[in-house]
Amino acid sequence: MAIRTHRLTFPLTAESARSLCAGDMVIMSGEIVVTAGLPTHHRLIGCLNGVEPMPMNLTGASVFHLGSYSEEKDGELQLHYINPTTSTRFNALMPTLITGFNWHAVGGKGGLDRPCVEALRQVGGVYLSFLGGGAALHTQAIRRVVEVGWSDMLMHYRLVRLEVEEMGPVTVAIDAHGVSLYEIDGAT
Amino acid sequence: MTGIGFDTIKRVTADLYDRSLRFIPADSKVALRKADGIETNETARHTLRTMIRSADAAEQSWRFVCSDSGVPVYVIKVGTQVRFSGNVRQAIVEGFADLVASIQPPLLPHVTNPLTLERGHSGRHMPIVTFDMVDDCDFIDITCSPKALGSGRWSAMEIFSFPDLPTIEAYVLDVVRKAGSQPCPPVVVGVGIGGTFDYACKLAKEATLRPIGQPHPEAMVAAMEERLLAAVNRTGFGPMGTGGDSTATAVHVDYAAGHGFTPVAVTFNCWINRRTRARLYNDGRVEIIE
């Protein structure tokens, strides 16, 4: 069966997310938010609990586990490179964040566990698998740095909102209907 | 004749690290193409092709293949007829510091103090360097294999008492299953068996550096490698863990005699399989091997 490829605008809506099936490919244009920081995720949980204000609006955002390196030059932020990090280390925090902020697209590499799959099904969200070691390809799709949140944190921990054009294709690895490509028999 | 100089070691080790970030070894590319040829899962074939495209794009633009540049790791074989004209460890430390200050694009601060979790570009025992002696050689052979979080996190070791081969192989597969989608498959699996606690891990690490497709010289071990590779690729994790037949491009096993306690160490290199290598000779020659 041929792979279905979708060109979609981000942040992804629940309707668009629900139109996707595990195994589909997505080419992304629009706005995404990236971070590779576990401390960042803990801080976001704190925001949900009223500990501190949000550094940027993340309601309904498409938030990916991507590390990035950007530098300010001539008053503008320039991005050197971007690449996914392993999502599984955020497993324990993601259900709260997905449902708390209504994220319809999350992603990175390595996947998320069953409670996260259920949270994505609840809100109408997908997990997108980015190629690890895909920095040269992913970075080509960045058009500009829109805003940066929590600049007091390490570079790759910060929340960075990016405008992207024709990013991908990335793989729908967990769909909004409870199907995860990461759940295999592991038969030997 | 002054021997191998401080500045040469400093420059070459820094250069090996820099280059290791910008392309993948030739054998890795061949292995990915071979996997693409026999893979039955369409998504997996697409991912394998994107991997080759990514490696080519990085090499052509001389940018990083992956943003996680890892920490600098060097395996150095020192010929017994080598003469040094300066401090070796200090040259490697200074080479890395100079590289951090000048490399474009810049490196993220991955060097982590394990006690405080502070991150930067330097730290105790960094770069990680191991030295071995090699008889009757007038060169040092330096392999640079930076280790990043994605593949570094899933190594494991267990010590058995007089294990039989099925027990050893079941353990290797258990470690592979726990790593699953996470170390950016298709991986190179390195397995070290026997010796002592530390030596088994060293054998596993060095096994990952062996060129893909080169079996162990002993038939019994080569057969084990073949069995394990087939079993790993039946797990179904596939490229980037989204399913397929290509979970590993190679399983490389090595062993050492030991006592009745038998450590079995398992480690991974991600699909990029970063590896650069050079030889420095007494007469000043520098030979870039890869």
In whole angstroms, the N-to-C terminal distance of chain B is: 27 Å
Radius of gyration of chain A: 16 Å
CATH architecture of chain A: Alpha-Beta Barrel
The CATH first-level class of chain A comes to Alpha Beta
Number of domains of chain B: 2
What class would the helix/strand composition of chain A place it in? alpha/beta
Mean pLDDT of chain A: 94
Helix content of chain A: 10-25%
CATH superfamily of chain A: Fe-S hydro-lyase, tartrate dehydratase beta-type, catalytic domain
Q: What is the topology, as strand order, of the major beta sheet of chain A? A: 2-3-5-6-8
Number of helices of chain B: 8
Share of β-strand residues of chain A: 35-45%
Number of helices of chain A: 5
Q: Determine the oligomeric state from the structure.
A: heterodimer
Point out poorly predicted stretches of chain B: none
Chain pair with largest interface: A-B, 42 and 44 residues
CATH fold annotation of chain A:
fumarase
Biggest sheet of chain B, strands in spatial order? 4-1-5-10-11
Low-confidence stretches of chain A: none
Tally of individual domains of chain A: 1
Helix-strand blueprint:
The complex is a heterodimer of chains A (188) and B (290).
Chain A: E1 5-10, H1 14-18, E2 25-35, H2 38-48, E3 62-73, E4 76-84, H3 94-101, E5 105-108, H4 114-123, E6 126-129, H5 135-140, E7 142-149, E8 159-174
Parallel strand pairs in A: 1-2, 2-3, 3-5, 5-6
Antiparallel strand pairs in A: 2-8, 3-4, 6-8, 7-8
Helix pairs in contact in A: 2-3, 3-4
Chain B: H1 6-20, H2 26-38, H3 42-61, E1 73-79, H4 88-102, E2 111-112, E3 119-120, E4 128-134, E5 139-144, H5 149-152, E6 156-161, H6 165-179, E7 187-194, H7 197-208, H8 219-233, E8 248-256, E9 261-269, E10 276-281, E11 286-288
Parallel strand pairs in B: 1-4, 7-8
Antiparallel strand pairs in B: 1-5, 2-3, 5-10, 6-9, 7-9, 10-11
